[in-house]
Amino acid sequence: EKTAIGIAHSKLILIGEHAVVHGQPAIAIPFPLIGVETVIERVPGTVKMDSSFYHGPLYLAPEALQGIVKCVEASLEYLEIPCKDLLIRINSSIPPGKGLGSSASVAISVIRSLFDFADRECTDEELLELANVAETYAHGAPSGLDTLTITSRSPVWYKKENPIDYIDLGEDFHFIVADSGRVGDTRTSVESVAKLLKSAPKRIQRKMDRIGELTHQAKHALERASKHFLGQLLNEAQKELESLGVSDAGLNKLIYFARKEGALGAKLTGGGNGGCIIALAQNEVHSKLLAEKLKKYGATAVWPFVLKKH
Ligand code: MEV
């Protein structure tokens, strides 16, 4: 009997979140330490297109779950697989609601498993198109950044309505992601920024432009291996995000401690108001040390990781 598998990793936004929604560039990076595995088996007489599909420690918001079901339906139809006798088991190690791309990773892992089930190779275009079926349910109007980053092995340079670009790193960079423990609602933070922009267009537009400028400089810092400069840029971006009201006491505390313990820079990552921070460490040893310290300071999970020059 055929068993099919599809895996997908997670993603992080390094810099440019929120401003990317309003036309500025963002840099996102693949985050392979956590991810999703989907296994499909043929089990006669079982399939229902509902949440009984899901086994294991998976939680998705109802809209996201509905998105996955729609995405399964669209993929089955596209692959001409009859929708019967299928058991789809999804196992995710990505905490949901933390800006780590949980919903998009689930979608991509599921699509890959369905292609494997059909013995078909899957092109990036097919993958992105089918994944965006799910993302449209999960996030309303997705920028597409999550799905692009989850299918990429290199850092992604992204600007709405522009072809995607990849960034060549000048060296390895060592980061730590730390979870504040609270779930953030990206949709609400995105809406609050849109409201601000409407109420004080000039002042807020200047902030958007500033984040865009910092993101351009961060691309150069990554390419030229200027990690101290990159750290400063992350700190500057955090200042802007705070002034947009998307950081909160829990994130600020972790950011403060990360810097105090020698991080070259630290900021929130993703939607904010809950969720995670990303900090740039001095080197590999420091990233492990920093991870331990952040755990002591209250992070509910920490992931030291290296962004590798290819
Ligand atoms: C969320 O991970 C990133 C935001 O910029 C929203 C988006 O790009 O759709 C806050």
Automatic annotation (TrEMBL):
<comment type="similarity">
    <text>Belongs to the GHMP kinase family. Mevalonate kinase subfamily.</text>
</comment>
<dbReference type="GO" id="GO:0019287">
    <property type="term" value="P:isopentenyl diphosphate biosynthetic process, mevalonate pathway"/>
</dbReference>
<dbReference type="InterPro" id="IPR006203">
    <property type="entry name" value="GHMP_knse_ATP-bd_CS"/>
</dbReference>
<keyword id="KW-0067">ATP-binding</keyword>
<dbReference type="GO" id="GO:0005829">
    <property type="term" value="C:cytosol"/>
</dbReference>
<feature type="domain" description="GHMP kinase C-terminal">
    <location>
        <begin position="229"/>
        <end position="299"/>
    </location>
</feature>
<keyword id="KW-0444">Lipid biosynthesis</keyword>
<dbReference type="GO" id="GO:0004496">
    <property type="term" value="F:mevalonate kinase activity"/>
</dbReference>
<dbReference type="InterPro" id="IPR006204">
    <property type="entry name" value="GHMP_kinase_N_dom"/>
</dbReference>
<dbReference type="InterPro" id="IPR020568">
    <property type="entry name" value="Ribosomal_Su5_D2-typ_SF"/>
</dbReference>
<keyword id="KW-0460">Magnesium</keyword>
<keyword id="KW-0547">Nucleotide-binding</keyword>
<dbReference type="Pfam" id="PF08544">
    <property type="entry name" value="GHMP_kinases_C"/>
</dbReference>
<keyword id="KW-0963">Cytoplasm</keyword>
<comment type="pathway">
    <text>Isoprenoid biosynthesis; isopentenyl diphosphate biosynthesis via mevalonate pathway; isopentenyl diphosphate from (R)-mevalonate: step 1/3.</text>
</comment>
<keyword id="KW-0443">Lipid metabolism</keyword>
<protein>
    <recommendedName>
        <fullName>mevalonate kinase</fullName>
        <ecNumber>2.7.1.36</ecNumber>
    </recommendedName>
</protein>
<feature type="domain" description="GHMP kinase N-terminal">
    <location>
        <begin position="69"/>
        <end position="147"/>
    </location>
</feature>
<dbReference type="InterPro" id="IPR036554">
    <property type="entry name" value="GHMP_kinase_C_sf"/>
</dbReference>
<keyword id="KW-0808">Transferase</keyword>
<dbReference type="Pfam" id="PF00288">
    <property type="entry name" value="GHMP_kinases_N"/>
</dbReference>
<dbReference type="InterPro" id="IPR013750">
    <property type="entry name" value="GHMP_kinase_C_dom"/>
</dbReference>
<dbReference type="InterPro" id="IPR014721">
    <property type="entry name" value="Ribsml_uS5_D2-typ_fold_subgr"/>
</dbReference>
<dbReference type="InterPro" id="IPR006205">
    <property type="entry name" value="Mev_gal_kin"/>
</dbReference>
<keyword id="KW-0418">Kinase</keyword>
<dbReference type="GO" id="GO:0005524">
    <property type="term" value="F:ATP binding"/>
</dbReference>
